[in-house]
C-alpha cells in the first residue's frame, strides 16, 4: 500500500471528540450535576468503547435525565413535545491524490480527511431511553429526523425520506468465531415490510445532496470539485441509489449509483462510487458537455481505480457524441448567419481524447481548454471541416474548449469575454474557399475568397435557457473574428503591379499574400443594403498600384484598398464614406503625396482625385461611375482551379476644369477597360487592355499647347500594342510664340504622326525639315523643326519636347565669308522645364592657294547653354584653326581653343587647349597641351566667423563710439 500524507486541510468547523468536551472529569461528577440540573440540552456525552473502537458524540434537545446510577433514564422534557438526539460521527471518508497511469508512482500521496457526519433522531413525546451505552445505541424505536453523511469527501448525503429509513447495528460488541471483536458499524436501510419478524429490505436507499459541496481542489482526486457540484445538482433532479451505506468506526463503505440519462440541464449523466472503510476503490463519472465554440456534444468518462502498488489511478477520456452540427432552429445563428458564414461544421478527429489534464481553465467552473500534443501552447488541435451556403468547404485545425454540461445552457457572457481576447490571436491554419457574404452581382463567386487561416470567436445565443436545454444546444455560437484570405481580385492585379516583385504568384495561381479581413460590423447587424454592398474590411490597408499598362497607359490608378464590396469588388480610401453611399475619388484613391512619389495620375501629370466627379449613390456598382474590379475563378467540378479572370471597368464623369497640364471640357470622356487572365499553371498573365481619353488639351510650361481629339490605346495578348492618336491644333505661347507663325508648315497629325511603341511607353511626334535657302551671298541649311510627346508606362509624367535642328546636325547660316550655326532642344513636363540645351556660334573663314602651297584660317566664337536635372551651365568659347599644306606631302595644322564656363552657384572654370598636328607623307603626329583653372567664390561670412570671440566685436564698437559721441 502506498503511504499517505495528511496535507493541510480546509477548515471544516469540526469540534474535538472526547470526554473533555462534556466538561466533567468523571461520571460521578456528571451524576451529581444531574441532581441539581437534569436538563441535558447543554450536555455533550461522548461514547467511547475500546472493544469495537466505537466513538460517538451525543447532544440533546428537549431531553432531561431522571434517576441515578445504572437506572438513569433520558426522557422528553415535555410530555407533549418530542425530543431529539444529535449524533456526531467521526470522519468517514478520505480524499486521496489520484494520478494518471503515466504519472503514477509508489511515492507518498496527499490525503485529506472529511468532516464529521451527523444523524438526528426523534424521541417520541413521553418516551424514555436508558442512559447507558446500549440505550444510546438503541435506535430501533426512534425515527430519523435528518442526516448529513459525508461518506464521500466533500459530498454530503442524506436519505430522501429520512423518517422512512432505519439504522442496522448491534448495541454490544460482536465477536467472531475466532474471538476477534468486529469494528462497530451501522448500515442505512429501508424499513422491513409489515409483519412479524420481517427482515429489513435490501433495496437501495435513495439519497440526495445534504448541503453545499466542497470546492477545495489542490490535487487530482477521484471526484473533482466540478464533479461534486454537478452530482449534487443532479441529485436534486433524481436521487442516487445507495446499495450500501455503512458507517463504521474507521470510515464508511458505500456503493452509490446515479443515472441521469435523459435529464436535461445536468452536467453528469452517470455516477458509480464504491469505497471501503473510507477509502475509494472504484469511482466512475460520465460528464456531459460541449466543445466550444462550435457546440459538439461530448461525454467525458473519468474512471478512478485503486491499485495495490500505485494507489488511486485515474483515466479520463472524452468522446465526441455528435461530430457534425448545423445551425438552425434554437441554435440558429444571429443576424441571419452573417457573422459566421458557415451552415455546418464537422469534427474530423480526434473523436476520443485523453483529458486527464484539466488545468487550463477558460473560467472557473465553466470549462477548460482540451490539452494534447502537437502545439507549443499545449492545446490539442482538432481537425474540422466547415461548409458554407454554396457548399464550399474549408478545412482547418483549432483548439477547443470543453464546456460543463450544467453551465452550457445558461448565460455564457463571462465565458465569451474570456474566450474572444484569446481567440483573436489564435491563427487557425485553413484551406478551401469561403463565401463571406451573399453575392449580389452577376458573378456568383464575387464574394468568395481562398482561405489561408481563420480566427473564430464566440457570441452568446439569444435563445432561452429552457429551449436550449430541451434541444441540447450550447448557449453560445461561433463567430468569425477574422479570416486570412487570398483575394484574387487584388493578387491577380498585384502580380502585374509596378511595386510587386516578380514571381508573386504561387502554384495555385492566386498569389502568396494572404490578407487579414474582418467582416464589417454594420453589414453583420443590418445586411448589405445598409452598407451599400460593403461586407468586409482589410485589417491593414493594402496599397494597390497596378502598372499603367492596365489602364492603357492613360491612368495610374493607385488606391489604398480598405474593403470589399459584393458589387464593385475592391473598395479604396475612406470605407465609412463609401458605406454611406458616396463615391469620393479624393478618399477612394491615393492622394498625390506632397513629398514626391507616384500619386493617382492621369497621363502621369494630373491628379485623378481632383478631376473625377463624386458619385452620390454607388449601390449600382456597374463600373460606370465607380471602378469595378471583379474576379471569376474557373473551377471545373472535381478538378483544381484553372485560372483567375479579373475585369477592371471604369467610365467616370469628368469635371470641366484645368488640373496641372490638362484642361478638360464638357466633351471630355474617360473609358478604361482591362481583362487579366492569370493561369494556375504558373504561366505569365495575359491581359487585354483598352483605354480611351477624348477631347482634352495639354499645356507644357506655358509654351506649348496641344489639343488632343482622342487618345486610344489597345493591347491584346500576342500582338503589338496599338495606339490611335488624333491631334488637333498645336499652339506655341510665351517665349516661343514666334514659332506659332510656322504652324502652317507642320504636317497634320491626321496625315500620320510618328508613333513609336515599346515596353517603356509611347512616343508621338512629327518634324519638319526646311529646304536649304540660298540668295546671293546668303545661305541657310539643315534647319529642322520637330515636336514630340512621350507617354511613359512606368507612371512618370508626360513629357513634351521641341527642337530646332540637333546637336548632331546643327543648322548652318553663311553670309559671304562670315558664318555660324546652332541648335536648340527644350523638354517640359508637369508644368516645368526639365531639360534645355542650345548652342549658337559665329565667325569668319579665309583660304589662300598658290599652287605648291595652300592655307586656310577659321576663327569662331559662341555660347553653349545646358540645363538638366536642375543643374545648369553656361559656356562661352573661342576657337581659332590654321592649316598649311605643301604639295600634299606636308600638312601642318594648329588649333587653339579657349572656353569659360559658369556653374552655379559660384564657380567659374576656364579651359585652354593648343593642338598641333603634323603629317609628312604617311607619318602623322598630334600633340595637345591643356590648362584648366577653376575659381570659386566662398559664402559670405556669418557673424560667428567674423567675430569668433567677443574682443573683435568690442573693438569695433569702441571704434565707432567716438563718432556717435561726436
Task: Describe the protein in words.
This protein has a 20-stranded mixed sheet that branches. The chain is mostly beta strands and 966 residues long. The longest helix is centred in the last third of the chain and has 16 residues, at 950-965. The chain contains twelve helices and 61 strands. A hairpin with a 2-residue loop joins strand 50 and strand 51.
Backbone structural class: mainly beta
Amino- and carboxy-terminal Cα gap: 122 Å
Mean pLDDT: 81
In this structure, how is the largest beta sheet organized?
20 strands, mixed
Rg from alpha-carbon coordinates = 51 Å
Percentage of residues in strands: over 45%
The low-confidence parts are 1-7, 12-21, 498-511, 594-599, 746-752
Work out the helicity level.
Answer: under 10%
Care to count the β-strands?
61
Salient structural properties:
single chain, 966 residues, mainly beta, 14-stranded antiparallel β-sheet, 10% helix, 48% strand, elongated, disordered N terminus
Amino acid at each position: 500500500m502506498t503511504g499517505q500524507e495528511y496535507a493541510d486541510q480546509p477548515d471544516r468547523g469540526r469540534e474535538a471528540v472526547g470526554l473533555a468536551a462534556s466538561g466533567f472529569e468523571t461520571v460521578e461528577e456528571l451524576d451529581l450535576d444531574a441532581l441539581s440540573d437534569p436538563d441535558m440540552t447543554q450536555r455533550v456525552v461522548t461514547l467511547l468503547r475500546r472493544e469495537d473502537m466505537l466513538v460517538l458524540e451525543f447532544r440533546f434537545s428537549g431531553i432531561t435525565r431522571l434517576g441515578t446510577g445504572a437506572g438513569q433514564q433520558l426522557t422528553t422534557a415535555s410530555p407533549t413535545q418530542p425530543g431529539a438526539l444529535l449524533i456526531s460521527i467521526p470522519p468517514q471518508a478520505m480524499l486521496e491524490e489520484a494520478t494518471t497511469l503515466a504519472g503514477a508512482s509508489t511515492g507518498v500521496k496527499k490525503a485529506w480527511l472529511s468532516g464529521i457526519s451527523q444523524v438526528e433522531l426523534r424521541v417520541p413525546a413521553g418516551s424514555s431511553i436508558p442512559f447507558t451505552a446500549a440505550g444510546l445505541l438503541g435506535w430501533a424505536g426512534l425515527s430519523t429526523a435528518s442526516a448529513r453523511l459525508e461518506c464521500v469527501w466533500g459530498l454530503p448525503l442524506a436519505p430522501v425520506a429520512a423518517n422512512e429509513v432505519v439504522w442496522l447495528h448491534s448495541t454490544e460488541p460482536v465477536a467472531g468465531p475466532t474471538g476477534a471483536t468486529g469494528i462497530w458499524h451501522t448500515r442505512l436501510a429501508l424499513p422491513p415490510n409489515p409483519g412479524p419478524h420481517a427482515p429489513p429490505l435490501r433495496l437501495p436507499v435513495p439519497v440526495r445532496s445534504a448541503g453545499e459541496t466542497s470546492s477545495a481542489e489542490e490535487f487530482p482526486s477521484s471526484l473533482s470539485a466540478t464533479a461534486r457540484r454537478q452530482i449534487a445538482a443532479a441529485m436534486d433532479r433524481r436521487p442516487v441509489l445507495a446499495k450500501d451505506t455503512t458507517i463504521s468506526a474507521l470510515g464508511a463503505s458505500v456503493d452509490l449509483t446515479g443515472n441521469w440519462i435523459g435529464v436535461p440541464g445536468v452536467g453528469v449523466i452517470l455516477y458509480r462510487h464504491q469505497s471501503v472503510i473510507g477509502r475509494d476503490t472504484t469511482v466512475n463519472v460520465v460528464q456531459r458537455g460541449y466543445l466550444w465554440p462550435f457546440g459538439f456534444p461530448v461525454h467525458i468518462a473519468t474512471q478512478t481505480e485503486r491499485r495495490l502498488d500505485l494507489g488511486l489511478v485515474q483515466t479520463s477520456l472524452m468522446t465526441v457524441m455528435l461530430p457534425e452540427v448545423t445551425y438552425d432552429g434554437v441554435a440558429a445563428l444571429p443576424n441571419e448567419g452573417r457573422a459566421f458564414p458557415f451552415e455546418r461544421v464537422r469534427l474530423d478527429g480526434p473523436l476520443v481524447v485523453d483529458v486527464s489534464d484539466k488545468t487550463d481553465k477558460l473560467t472557473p467552473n465553466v470549462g477548460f481548454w482540451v490539452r494534447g500534443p502537437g502545439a507549443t501552447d499545449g492545446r490539442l488541435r482538432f481537425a474540422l471541416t466547415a461548409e458554407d451556403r454554396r457548399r464550399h468547404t474549408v478545412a482547418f485545425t483549432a483548439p477547443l474548449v470543453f464546456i460543463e454540461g450544467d453551465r452550457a445552457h445558461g448565460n455564457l457572457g463571462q465565458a465569451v469575454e474570456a474566450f474572444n481576447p484569446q481567440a483573436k490571436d489564435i491563427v487557425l491554419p485553413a484551406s478551401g474557399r469561403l463565401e463571406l457574404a451573399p453575392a449580389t452581382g452577376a458573378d456568383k463567386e464575387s464574394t468568395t475568397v481562398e482561405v489561408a487561416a481563420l480566427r473564430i470567436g464566440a457570441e452568446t445565443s439569444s435563445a432561452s435557457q429552457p429551449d436550449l436545454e430541451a434541444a441540447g444546444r450550447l448557449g453560445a455560437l461561433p463567430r468569425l473574428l477574422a479570416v486570412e484570405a487570398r483575394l484574387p481580385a487584388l493578387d491577380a492585379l498585384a502580380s502585374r503591379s509596378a511595386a510587386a516583385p516578380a514571381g508573386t504568384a504561387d502554384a495555385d495561381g492566386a498569389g502568396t499574400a494572404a490578407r487579414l479581413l474582418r467582416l464589417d460590423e454594420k453589414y453583420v447587424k443590418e445586411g448589405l443594403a445598409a452598407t451599400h454592398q460593403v461586407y468586409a474590411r482589410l485589417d491593414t490597408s493594402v496599397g494597390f498600384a497596378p502598372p499603367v499598362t492596365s489602364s492603357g497607359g492613360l491612368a495610374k490608378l493607385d488606391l489604398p484598398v480598405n474593403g470589399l464590396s459584393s458589387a464593385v469588388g475592391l473598395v479604396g480610401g475612406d470605407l465609412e464614406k463609401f458605406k454611406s453611399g458616396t463615391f469620393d475619388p479624393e478618399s477612394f484613391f491615393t492622394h498625390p503625396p506632397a513629398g514626391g512619389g507616384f500619386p493617382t495620375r492621369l497621363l502621369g501629370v494630373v491628379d485623378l482625385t481632383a478631376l473625377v466627379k463624386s458619385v452620390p449613390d454607388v449601390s449600382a456598382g456597374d463600373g460606370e461611375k465607380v471602378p469595378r474590379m471583379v474576379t471569376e475563378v474557373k473551377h471545373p467540378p472535381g478538378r483544381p482551379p484553372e485560372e483567375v479572370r479579373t475585369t477592371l471597368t471604369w467610365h467616370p464623369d469628368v469635371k470641366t476644369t484645368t488640373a496641372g497640364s490638362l484642361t478638360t471640357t464638357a466633351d471630355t470622356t474617360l473609358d478604361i477597360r482591362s481583362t487579366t487572365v492569370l493561369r494556375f499553371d504558373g504561366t505569365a498573365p495575359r491581359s487585354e487592355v483598352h483605354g480611351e481619353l477624348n477631347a482634352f488639351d495639354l499645356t507644357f510650361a506655358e509654351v506649348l499647347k496641344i489639343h488632343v481629339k482622342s487618345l486610344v490605346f489597345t493591347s491584346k495578348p500576342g500582338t503589338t500594342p496599338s495606339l490611335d492618336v488624333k491631334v488637333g491644333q498645336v499652339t506655341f505661347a510665351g517665349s516661343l510664340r514666334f514659332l506659332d507663325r510656322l504652324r502652317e508648315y507642320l504636317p497634320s497629325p491626321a496625315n500620320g504622326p510618328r508613333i513609336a511603341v515599346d515596353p517603356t511607353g509611347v512616343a508621338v511626334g512629327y518634324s519638319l525639315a526646311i529646304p536649304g535657302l540660298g540668295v546671293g551671298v546668303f545661305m541657310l541649311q539643315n534647319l529642322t523643326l520637330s515636336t514630340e510627346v512621350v507617354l511613359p508606362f512606368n507612371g512618370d509624367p508626360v513629357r513634351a519636347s521641341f527642337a530646332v535642328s540637333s546637336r548632331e546636325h546643327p543648322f548652318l547660316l553663311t553670309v559671304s565669308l562670315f558664318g555660324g550655326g546652332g541648335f536648340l532642344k527644350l523638354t517640359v513636363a508637369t508644368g516645368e522645364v526639365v531639360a534645355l540645351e542650345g548652342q549658337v556660334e559665329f565667325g569668319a573663314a579665309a583660304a589662300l592657294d598658290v599652287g605648291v602651297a595652300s592655307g586656310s584660317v577659321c576663327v569662331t566664337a559662341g555660347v553653349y547653354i545646358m540645363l538638366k536635372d536642375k543643374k545648369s551651365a553656361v559656356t562661352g568659347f573661342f576657337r581659332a584653326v590654321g592649316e598649311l599644306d605643301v604639295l600634299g606631302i606636308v600638312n601642318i595644322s594648329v588649333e587653339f581653343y579657349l572656353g569659360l564656363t559658369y556653374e552655379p552657384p559660384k564657380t567659374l572654370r576656364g579651359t585652354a587647349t593648343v593642338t598641333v598636328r603634323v603629317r609628312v607623307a604617311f607619318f602623322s603626329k598630334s600633340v595637345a597641351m591643356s590648362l584648366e583653372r577653376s575659381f570659386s567664390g566662398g559664402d559670405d561670412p556669418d557673424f560667428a566667423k567674423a567675430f569668433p570671440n567677443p574682443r573683435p566685436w568690442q573693438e569695433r564698437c569702441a571704434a565707432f563710439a567716438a563718432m556717435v559721441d561726436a
